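so the lab meeting is tmrw and i was supposed to have these ready like two days ago... anyway. pasting both below. for each one the top line is the aa sequence and the line under it is the structure tokens. i havent really looked at them closely yet so no promises
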Amino acid sequence: MAVTRKKKDKAFAPPKIVWGDVEAIMNEHDEPAWLREFRAKAWETYESLPMPTTKDEPWRRTDYRHINWETAGTIAKPNGANFESIPAENRAPLIGEEQGGLIAWVDGELVHEQLDASLIEQGVKLMDLRQAAVEYEDLVRKHLFTKAVLVDEGKFAALNAAAWTHGVFIYIPKNVRVELPLHSIFYNTQIGASVGHVLIVAEEGAEATVLQEYLSPDAEAHTSYIGATELLIGKGANVKYVSLQNWGNSTYEFSHQRARVDRDAQLDWVVGNMGSKLTKAFLEIMIDGQGAWSRMSGMYFGDGNQHIDQDTLQTHNASNTTSDLLFKGALTENAYSVWQGMIKVVEGAQQSDGFQANRNLLMVDTARADSIPGLEIEADDVRCTHAATVGKLDEEPVFYLQTRGVPRLEAERLIMNGYFWDVLERIPFEEVQQRLLRDVDTKLLKGRIS
């Protein structure tokens, strides 16, 4: 009698990055002793942590075992691409012909660095994180993986700490107001793993607007981005941070992004996720000081077999604090989105005001959206609410526009643009708004026009 053996499930295997790769990074750039020691300890933590699996609640709806780590799990190497390799519309100034500064990496290699002379005189820094670790050691050591993202909070966070290949360091000194925007770009052309880091420090009373972009063309083989973002907003500071991701259709993103907002400070954070094959992003705001205010706005549009999983957390660690979150998504073809949101109010954080909403629009029956809001309240004098919806395109406004001579596709496009507008209007750059609307149009009209 033949015996049927149950096929073993494919394991949640780690990337192919090894300690020798980290040593090569350190030696190639002649990194300082403190950073070498930090990487070594982070690598020990990385090796001690398990890979996340679908048995872990935050990952229960995101199975990434189909990733090909043979291509996506080895460090990508630069191959001669330069600043001009980045699409011109992404390199263009953000407000007319002006911007405070622009810095860019292609395949982990710094290819452009420009900062207005007046900002340099005021002590503003927009620079390569590795260079900053040498020139401003005390400043970087004080903030890198110490307050926001922590090395031991996950396998991918630890890998970023140990093996980051490139990073941007933005520093706004006390009471300095940066009126023109600062712009940073991570652009990838090569197959492999890109490990990037964003560290932004706004001291007390500082003000700035920052655009961070993540881009790559479509590729024939799997690639990955393993990222971390740290936003440290000092007392009374005011920062608007826009993060736009438009990876190619073979990129898998695993990222930890966290902000800490101090007393009477303000953070307005806008997130756009349009690209990638799979995205698993942890997006968190820790509101640490009385009178602090934060807002996180997100938009995403999935098509094909895209999988977009965003895990948000608003933590009120002090009284009289405010958080507001709005994420809006649209899905077509076989795309699948997951949003898991939590508002947490710690004991003693009285008079906290928190709100979160997630809206999802399904363009076809084959698309799917899971929306999971949550509250964890440990104080008794708060106002915290949430809302979540998943629905189809309302036919009534489509019909209304058609009766006035608007073709159906154009009617859907107009409705979709309006649907996303309350997020788009929070991006302070008109050209960037229009670029995102073009991305929405492309996905909406995909396969429906000749």
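ok protien two:
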Amino acid sequence: MMSNSQAPGPFFAVGVWRSGTSLLHALLNQHPQIALLYEGDLPLLGPFFRAPGGRQAWPKRWDFWNGGLRRHQLDAAAFPKNLRDENMATRAVYQLFAARKGARIWGEKSPTFYAELLRLARSFPDARFLIIWRNPAEILDSMYRAAEGGSLWFRKRGMPLRALIGCREMKRQRDELVRRGIPLLEIDYDQLTSDPESVMRGVCGFLDIPFDSRMTSLAGADRSSVPDGQHHAKVKSREIERAEKTKSALPPELAAKAGRYVNLWRKQTNGEWPRVGVRVDAQDPGAIPSWVEQAYDATTFRLLRGFDALVLLLYSVAPISLLQGYRDRKRRAAGLPARPRNQGAQ
């Protein structure tokens, strides 16, 4: 398990989808003392362990869910045999992955953690957190472009609302972590792309490790755990592409909605959040969502989260052959080829 040289607790890098978490992961893992999994999401997969036979079958279920074993070149036979739940499995997998590199800092980056910060803090009291922020309107714009580029994940119903309201949920949970005194560092996407050295020096100071200049470049970075797809083209390039304020590709109604919520949140926080690089896309710079819109969106967000939980439960008990057939039919319906049998959904 954990060697004497490894940190006592996990390090979680978190941000809403399309906020720069993949770039952040690639740069962090350039450091020889950092080894983070890429969107394995094991801390959230409790149903895999509690299903009948789950303690034996969870590695296979996990790999089918998101390719966690394959993408990280992990051998399930190397895992301890007495892993009773997702928290024990998470520590074991993170530490084994880091030990392979000889790294001191172990953990994971995942946008799926955006609404799970408090759960992670409860499960891992010794955890440290890094949150990356990006303008919500730009997040939605990037998601829309990814969907147009062929990503089935970002074509899912309700993804824009998940991300938009998810920004506020992550802020709410961030505030609670700060109130509890849990170690937390925050960075900004625009600054990461324009001045990666200062950001990475700050991260190294937070983690109490020496700065390594390789963290400022994608040259030589290991992106083997990052799935294929046009929406990952930038992180798989050799150079960091600086964020630019290009014309939004969002439909006008979605751009206006994002602007209304940005206006609301800045009003509620006296202009403090969202902080950096905010671009208000509402047609009326003073427009905010009505209480009806807020109530409807909050309810829909909770329903979407509940639906995601039901899907996870289904994936914990249904035969994998049946689930694979469903995936293949879904991809054919979208005009895409079936994935190889050992790849995950994303």
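from a quick look at the 2nd one: The two ends are 29 Å apart (CA to CA). The mean pLDDT is 90. will dig more after coffe
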